Amino acid sequence: MADTQDWTQVVLKKTRRVADASAHPSGATKIVERPAGTESQRLASLEKKIENNEAIVRKHIDSSILKLLIQTRIEKKLTQINADNLCGFPRNTFREIESGRLVPNSKQISLIQKSLGVVIRLSL
Known about the structure:
Layout: E1 16-19, E2 29-32, H1 38-51, E3 60-61, H2 63-75, H3 80-87, H4 93-99, H5 106-116, E4 122-123
Antiparallel strand pairs: 1-2, 3-4
């Protein structure tokens, strides 16, 4: 008998599938590639800072400002989900900000200031 085993190497790549009904009327899913290396680039820059003995500083929101943000949201009779919708944020963004797990970027800060009137300043 002849050797029938195929010894060629096969490489499988993991992709994220997103349902896109507009692309295919049959409801087939469209394969969307994630940008490669974003997490690895962040870790590489962090390791570089550690090797060079640079200070790694994380910004945060002061607890008094967080309390003011929560108080203002409640005074305007908004739930966290309603506040997310008002600012155009994804769901649970306000929950993450108010708990201190998420530091808002400058765009999010300006949207919060416009919609709720709370001035947010980041501290080191």
